[in-house]
Write a structure and sequence with these properties.
The chain is an alpha+beta fold and 177 residues long. It has three helices and ten strands; from the N terminus they run H-E-E-E-E-E-H-E-E-E-E-H-E. 25% of the residues lie in helices and 42% in strands.
């Protein structure tokens, strides 16, 4: 009797331990259709994922464990290489995204097969860091553009949050070939 109960307790302890470990491990978001991957810290939850009926765009939203920061990721599949400045202009002007005014200049980085621009946006209510990526593969059947948007209420924005944003964004990779 004790042996069965002890074994059952050990199994339950293992299950709860495994569940605890899975909540402490970072998560890899890997979308093989829209050709990107990035890592989410432990505790972040995916809140929503929607794809267009034409299968040419997808959106994800994630929430931090303390519920004080969200991430929106938009990915678009295209037939050609998109001008990154046109992409940024269109998203900044999209009224449904309600992006605050840009604060400062863009930072840029080239990764070979894709490049990135990012900027800080803020108003009285929100502080946001937005990263725009685009693939540049002229001979590929598809190219992609991405917006990785970190949204924090202005009162919750801090150096620690900024570091977290930089750490997460640094893991973003376009896997398009």
């Amino acid at each position: 009797m004790f042996r069965k109960t002890g074994l059952a307790l050990l199994i339950l302890l293992f299950i709860f331990s495994a569940k605890g470990f899975s909540q402490t491990e970072e998560k890899i978001v890997d979308d093989f259709i829209y050709k990107f991957t990035f890592k989410m810290p432990a505790g972040w939850e995916m809140k929503d994922m929607k794809e267009t009926t034409d299968k040419d765009a997808i959106s994800y939203s994630f929430e931090s464990p303390d519920k004080k920061m969200t991430i929106m990721l938009l990915a678009f599949k295209l037939n050609s290489v998109k001008n990154i400045d046109d992409f940024i202009y269109n998203l900044e002007k999209d009224i449904s995204l309600n992006i605050p005014s840009k604060s400062g200049d863009y930072s840029e980085q080239d990764f070979g097969k894709y490049d990135m621009k990012n900027a800080h946006y803020k108003d009285n209510k929100f502080d946001e860091m937005i990263y725009y990526f685009r693939t540049k593969l002229p001979d590929a059947p598809n190219n992609y553009v991405y917006m990785l948007r970190f949204i924090t209420e202005a009162k919750d924005y801090s150096a620690e949050r900024e570091k977290s944003i930089k750490d997460i964004s640094a893991t973003f990779v376009s896997t398009a070939e």
